[in-house]
Amino acid sequence: MRLIEVKITNQGIRMKGHAGRLGSDGIDRACTAVSALTCNLINAIESLTEDRIESDMDSGFTEIRWRELSEQGKLLVDSWMIGITAVNDEYHCILFQ
């Protein structure tokens, strides 16, 4: 079984892997959902807060780093977590470390 490994620390988020949940149309909706939620998190932190983050994204890999997050930034991360937890509840594709 393929999984997306997610590690969350006080200084960032690191994800690697693929869900491997291809639909009959060849689209991996779990990976697509996690990617969309994560891109939105990066954009929201950069646009809606004054927090400074660094991010790297590639196929099967994402890392977001920060030194410190404001309360707004933490709320956005919490919102992202609710979203990816819902994806995991549906597809059982995330391993939280």
Question: What does this protein look like?
Answer:
The protein has 97 residues and is of the alpha+beta class. Helix content is 42%, strand content 28%. The chain has two helices and five strands; from the N terminus they run ββαββαβ. The protein has helices at 29-48, 71-91; strands at 4-9, 12-17, 53-58, 61-66, 94-96. Strands 3-4-2-1-5 form a five-stranded mixed beta sheet, covered by helices on one side. Strand 3 (53-58) and strand 4 (61-66) form a beta hairpin. The longest helix has 21 residues, at 71-91. The protein is elongated and about 40 Å long. The mean pLDDT is 95.
Briefly summarize what is shown:
The protein is an alpha+beta fold and 97 residues long. The chain has helices at 29-48, 71-91, and strands at 4-9, 12-17, 53-58, 61-66, 94-96.
